[in-house]
Amino acid sequence: MKLFPYAHATHPQWPMAAALVLAQLRAHMSLPGYASAPTLALLYITDHFAASAQEILDHLSAEMPEVTDWSGTVGVGIASNNVEYFDEPALAVMLCELPAAQYRVFSGVSPLPAASRFKAHTALVHADASTPDVAELIQEMAERTDSGYVFGGLASSRSNALQFALSGNGNLRGQGAAGGVFSGGLSGVAFARSAAAGPLGAGSGSLGLMSRVTQGCQPVSANYQITACEGNVITGLNGQPALEVMLGDLDISLDNPKEAIDKVRRTLVGLSDDTKRPADGLIRRAGQFGADVLVRHLIGLDPSRKGIAIAHVPEVGMTLAFCERHAAAARADLIRICAEIREELEPQEVSAEVAQALGASLAESAPHPARGIAGALYVSCAGRGGPHFGGPSAELQIIRRALGDVPLVGFFAGGEIARNHLYGYTGVLTVFTASD
Q: Cα–Cα distances in Å, from 191 out to 1, 23, 101?
């Protein structure tokens, strides 16, 4: 297995940032442990460069003609190994060496082929939050894959919410020439079964995909079944008035409105569909939510109906738990998903060389094939980032310490995509792995 070349840079002028990135990529490609014949590039830029998105893509693709396919988007922040860039002009690129038959870049002008021509097992999805019914489109996209699992995020920008999708397979006839930069809808990369495996463990082909979701929330109540609701207002939990149940769990009273409002503002709800979630329950581990849980905000109280309003339209029969999101829970859950990936990838018996690579200190470590990871993609919420974890780049530093030093790029999104859901305030970590 070869490591995926990756690079990142910041500079007020995009040509200089691009030159720095190209120099890093070429340096990696010259090393024996890195891929030298990449075909697919993942490109992420901060919104400072959004106005120059087409120029950046044209320049990079011209400088690297061997890379036939490009995918990516814009974020208010972007990420790479051990570093994040917020509120500054920056770009990050990772070059993936995958057989052309194992993936397809798709967009509005280059749609995913019919299943008879290309069988998608999973997909990286970039989307525009302004697209009508975007959550339903994401679910529909997941249904077009064998695994029912897609991953990615919504573009986030203070200007243009752009996506990159340049396909070597060409565009749909009649759609005209397309430069590879789009607004609206969905785009991304679909992976065939030979390049991906179920949600998502080691692959059966030359490479596999493994993906985990970190919610960063701590439950503060028992699990309840929604027994009555109207629109987005839940009026019954386990047959009791929902408002009374919440006030009891949070130990607050409407007679003391200031204390009650402060506590309610810090409280969210975790929702799960009993008919679809795994049999091991709503909370997979003590004090943690699984990826089957959707965390949503409380947006109001309805004393007249003794109900609570949430930022979601629930259904009777769903399971609900009240929860809080804070830095300690987010840090612990992020470490957990990295540890799960490492445990699944690291063999029980290793050679001295592999043990040395896996046990290297931060000062001595470098991306190494022994870790079993060719590259990684991390999509985090724009509301998270370093400040939420204690300082600049702290979130990415946690990943590096927990997962190891691996090629990584990503972005901070307006919503995170995992399974067939659109999440908020989460992180989605996906790694390309060696099946052997």
A: 18, 29, 9
**DSSP bridge partners of 218:** 324
With beta carbons less than 8 A apart as the criterion, state whether 77 and 84 touch: yes
pLDDT, residue 137, reads 95
**Sign of the Cα pseudo-torsion (8, 14, 20, 26, in order):** positive
What does the alpha-carbon distance between residue 326 and residue 404 come to, in Å, rounded to a whole number? 24
Considering just the CA atoms, what is the radius of gyration of the chain in Å?
22
C-beta separation of 425 from 325 below 8 A: yes
- Crossing angle of helices 257-265/242-250, nearest 10°? 90
Residue 351: CB atoms within 10 A of its CB come to 10
Q: How far is CA 320 from the centre of its chain?
A: 24
The candidate with the shortest Cα–Cα distance to 69, out of 35, 45, 38, 44, is 38
Pairing of strands 408-413, 240-241: unpaired
Q: Can you tell me the distance from the alpha carbon of 267 to that of 243, in angstroms, rounded to the nearest whole number? A: 13
54-58, 223-227, 366-370, 381-385: the lowest-pLDDT one: 366-370
Q: Is the CB of residue 4 less than 8 Å from the CB of residue 40?
A: no
Q: What DSSP character marks residue 293? A: P
Q: What's the predicted TM-score (pTM) here?
A: 0.85
DSSP 307-346: EEEESS---TT-EEEEEEE-HHHHHHHHHHHHHHHHHHHS
Q: Which residues pair with 10 in a beta bridge?
A: 90
Least confident of 10-24, 43-57, 279-293, 323-337: 279-293
Nearest to 2 by CA among 27, 40, 38: 38
Q: Report d(CA 143, CA 407) in Å as an integer.
A: 30
C-alpha closest to that of 208 among 436, 435, 401? 435
- pLDDT tens digit sequence for 110-142: 888 888 789 999 999 999 999 999 999 999 999
Under a CB-based contact definition with an 8 Å cutoff, are residues 10 and 62 in contact?
no
Contacts for 170 with CB less than 8 Å, ≥ 6 apart:
110
